[in-house]
Amino acid sequence: FVLQLHSNSDKGDGSVKYILTGEGAGTIFIIDDTTGDIHSTKSLDREQKTHYVLHAQAIDRRTNKPLEPESEFIIKVQDINDNAPKFTDGPYIVTVPEMSEMGTSVLQVTATDADDPTYGNSARVVYSILQGQPYFSVDPKTGVIRTALHNMDREAREHYSVVIQAKDMAGQVGGLSGSTTVNITLTDVNDNPPRFPQKHYQLYVPESAQVGSAVGKIKANDADTGSNADMKYTIINGDGSGVFSISTDKETREGILSLKKPLNYEKKKSYTLNIEGANTHLDFRFSHLGPFKDVTMLKVIVGDVDEPPLFTMPSYVMEVYENAKIGTPVGTVTAHDPDAANSLVRYFIDHNTEEDRYFTIDASTGTIKTAKIFDREETPWYNITVAASEIDNPGLVSHVPVGVRILDVNDNPPELARDYDVVVCENTKPGQVIQTITATDKDNSANGARFHFSLDEGLSLNPNFTLRNNEDNTASILTRRRRYSRTTQDIYYLPVLISDGGMPPLSSSSTLTIRVCACERDGRVRTCHAEAFLSSAGLSTGALIAILLCVVILLAIVVLFITLRRSKKEPLIISEEDVRENVVTYDDEGGGEEDTEAFDITALRNPSAAEELKYRRDVRPEVKPLSRHHLSSSLDSIDVQEFIKQRLAEADLDPSVPPYDSLQTYAYEGHRSEAGSISSLDSATTHSDQDYNYLGDWGPEFKKLAELYGEIEPERTT
Where does it live in the cell (predicted)? Predict the structure, then answer.
């Protein structure tokens, strides 16, 4: 039962009907429509819904009309302690540094209670520790966990499991409770110094140990972890500090002992080392627990080993002259047995390379001799390897590198440094330098660095060129003439003698080839070949070839045209259907009226030479031709113009012309010129006193023309 509804209109006779609507009506809450009693059909949970809003109304059962207005009422769910506290974030994992002060805060835990905190003590929580004492404690109200002991040591215990309980009803009897686990780990601090397990160590190292190799290990223990256990090893004193070195392996934290110098059992049989191991990351809060380092003593015992022979030098350099005879001594290597037995030593050369076969060695004395004749210019240096072994123990072998330098002798004459292309211009002046030459010598500077140049003294004085020794290992070629002509001689040969400054001096003769070339005024070479006059006017070889090809093509066309015309024949009788138009053009032009060699016009001027007019035999003339007398009188005229006009009229009036158009052109040049002929046909036989020297100032294009008309005597010398 929850409550009862009652209306003032209800007389108890059952005429009033009660109706309930709203949240949960009909499902959670039901009403007796006659009495108005409301009951709940199931348990209510305040944590799910705290209140319900319902509407009630009284109506007439017979008419279903409301007797009163609808009324609203709220049903509140009253809380009871039915929810235990819960730790929503548990379990917890947390760390705290070791050696922390007592009361150091570790973690704050919080439990939640779903009950109503405003009604009673159902949601009032109190914290307590169930497990983890006496190391940790918890604040009952705030849930803060703290350390409960001084100087908790990680090395003694590292992990702790603490159980915290939360209880409602303020911890009273009957309250509900919940718990969680807090896993606490102590983190490390550098509170432990390193310690060597022993104060004295002993190490055996054979004297054959290689320099730089690791010969032993040593380690100091540190209870700390991580960077707090890092340490560095050093050799602080002892007679072996200069022979051994120590380094730290960061992974294993071990000290690696290495050899710095070779060991020799015959000289020193043991060494003493003081080795220190110290932490590299110190925490000054715990300096009172130090010092954070430790020292131990290491005794190194050197073991005796049968060693190979030892050479007196780590390497040898020897010298021998080139061209020396086979068997010439080069030098001597020496080795001895370092052991107390002092066994005899034998020598030999390792024939690993071809160079090792060029020398021999005396097995007893170690003297190296030549096995071939050397040429310094071919190979100036040889590298060989000499080995030495004990007679008693041939398996023990030591090696030493030997370098042999081949010394130079003056056995190569000097020669020109390269093939020189010497050019002299036609318009050069006497004493002009046209080329500077130099020489090379395969010998070194001691036997060939100083060169002397001269002309071959066995020949007569050269009238064209001379040579000047510049005293700096070069020489200059100078001209001795004013002009050179390609047409006269285009190539000269100049023998040059070169000697070196070696002992004894050597010399050689070389011949320079000097070409004569045409040059511009600024000295640039234009051409060096004897060319035709047309070529000297500035036409290149390609242009000349193109012109020749054009001429050949034109000649071929003319020959083909003439051949076709000769092979073509006209029929004597032309049919009436053969109607054609033919334009005949005569465009051959002669040399003028005075050019009697081009065409003889005597036939035009001599009436007796004119042939009798002949008419076509296949056509009957309808018009009487001109009389023979009239033709003769016309030919007697001296004036060619009148003669041409007469012939033109005859052609126009002649009925016997072919039945197609014919165009005949007669050109008339006029009377003789008063200035005379300008033809060049007879100019070759005339002599002129005109001075053509001005042609030399017209430039290089008219140079050849100036040479043709100038009075230049050709000069040809040998």
Answer: Cell membrane
